[in-house]
Amino acid sequence: MVSLLAILLPAVFGVPSCRTEKKPDLRLSAYTWEIDVDDSNRLYEGSTVISNEGKGVLKIDYVNTGCSCTNAVLSKQELKYRDTTAVRFSYNPRGKRPGTHEEFIVIKANTDTMVHLIKLVINIK
After folding, report:
1. Does the pLDDT at position 62 exceed 90?
2. Residue 9 to residue 22: CA distance in whole angstroms
3. How many domains does the structure of the chain reveal?
4. Element spanning 112, H or E
């Protein structure tokens, strides 16, 4: 009877796959940056490292910013397992009012997460 169940159960419910899909896993070295602006005529710059901690190839479709005052550039768009690249960004405070402002850098890649965000918190004096 046991051997009959061993034959019928996989036939009815299917056999689980032993193969696992190799997926990329995007990680950021920093998810939030705080920028203290004391000179509105100066360009403020920084960078965040992107790494692929998944076994699949990470393909970055784009890196966008939400404002023309922020610029972001990616040095490499395809990362193998444990490979890294940098997102270099700049913020131009010219014409911005004093206070706290938030800007976002949006990263779209072939991951389970729709988009990845880097948040810039800008404190203008």
Report:
1. yes
2. 28
3. 1
4. none
